[in-house]
Amino acid sequence: xxxxxxxxxxxxxxxxxxxxxxxxxxxxxxxxxxxxxxxxxxxxxxxxxxxxxxxxxxxxxxxxxxxxxxxxxxxxxxxxxxxxxxxxxxxxxxxxxxxxxxxxxxxxxxxxxxxxxxxxxxxxxxxxxxxxxxxxxxxxxxxxxxxxxxxxxxxxxxxxxx
Length: 162
Known about the structure:
The chain is mainly alpha-helical. It has one domain. Helices cover 77% and strands 0% of the residues. Helix 2 packs antiparallel against helix 3 (34-51), helix 2 (9-29) packs antiparallel against helix 8 (144-159) and helix 3 runs parallel beside helix 5 (82-92). The two termini are 13 Å apart.
């Protein structure tokens, strides 16, 4: 079920605000708080409640489960942070299967652009900047929550209202 479309307007704006907050927090601290992830989860559950019971919600549960399982696997390999996994999975609960493909494409493209920008900034930033800005330190990782939030906002923009 397309919860982006069926949720009340205020709830969709709350989701967008939570995604922006997660992106900012990850960019600054390289961490995403559990409170933000719980907010995205609670918003999806509320959207389901406002939408009413629908048999197609199995797709949303499947997307959530697949993203959580895949993210947990990547976390176990050290390829993805725990906050990134939780944010991606809870965001997936908002999506049915077709929308999840848009979400994943948006996240992957945003992640590629983000990685190139950060790697370029690391190459050209003065050494003093690396002491002040966490993401400019070599080996500090990429704040993938920014890409997840961007992909979520892209999917929301493309699938809200039509």
